[in-house]
TrEMBL record:
The lineage of its organism: Bacteria, Bacillati, Actinomycetota, Actinomycetes, Kitasatosporales. It comes from the Bacteria. This is Uncharacterized protein. It comes from Streptomyces finlayi. InterPro entries: Gp3-like (IPR043991). Pfam families: Gp3-like.
Length: 228
């Protein structure tokens, strides 16, 4: 049993201690007055001032302490829309489908079968077969959305530690099999590019639409890249 001294005095916990094995998070957006806002460049959050300083040096931006109560209370609005990263292997990219009601997970599946709770695991989840129907159900809060987690190192500062990017992007979900296949072909650590790609188009009604989608492009094995 672990000691529980910080339960009664959470402010005494050292800010440099992380609840998982990552030193920071990458974000493609932020909340402004409670309203989601997408970004053209990466936002990075961390609880370690030294990590923040290195990220700012590599990607631009200025570390700023926020009012966040999370362990990653320092954020850097970088100037980078593309970042070279190192993925350990195909297991560095994980995904499932989740539907939340506030903080309660009410549907958890892989798109075909339930992943939880244990008593339902392996049973048909009842999600629509067609992609467009899946998206429509998720948009109306009647079905789950993708939950994709990418764990990586910065290629330009490999020893800085692991970072994580979490996204619900359908566009990324649609090509995850291609990323997995590319990582399997490398068969180990891979150099990749994590980017926020600009998408622009005009609807049939003449409305101009633009947004950023997260993309992952596997480039080569990390050992080959490091040897260059």
């Amino acid at each position: 049993m672990a000691i529980r001294i910080f339960e009664t005095d959470p402010d005494a916990m050292p800010r440099g201690t992380f609840s998982d094995d990552t030193v920071g998070r990458f974000h493609s957006g932020r909340q402004v007055n409670g309203i989601p806002e997408s970004l053209a460049t990466w936002r990075v959050s961390t609880g370690d001032p030294d990590v923040a300083a290195v990220v700012a040096q590599l990607l631009g931006g200025q570390p700023e302490e926020t009012d966040s109560t999370s362990e990653n209370f320092i954020e850097i609005l970088t100037g980078a829309e593309r970042v070279k990263i190192v993925l350990a292997d195909a297991s560095a990219v994980t995904s499932d489908m989740k539907l939340w009601n506030g903080s309660a997970l009410i549907h958890h599946c892989d798109g075909v079968e339930y992943l939880s709770p244990d008593e339902d695991r392996g049973k048909a989840c009842g999600c629509p077969a067609l992609m467009e129907d899946r998206k429509a159900a998720a948009k109306s809060k009647r079905g789950p959305s993708p939950s994709i987690s990418v764990t990586f190192r910065l290629a330009d500062s490999y020893d800085l530690g692991l970072f994580r990017f979490q996204t619900g992007s359908w566009k990324l979900a649609e090509v995850l099999h291609e990323i997995e296949n590319a990582l399997d072909r490398v068969g180990g650590e891979a150099l990749a590019e994590l980017s926020l790609e600009l998408v622009e188009y005009t609807t049939k009604k003449g409305r101009d639409v633009s947004y950023r989608k997260p993309t992952i492009r596997v480039l080569k094995s990390w050992s080959d890249a490091a040897a260059e």
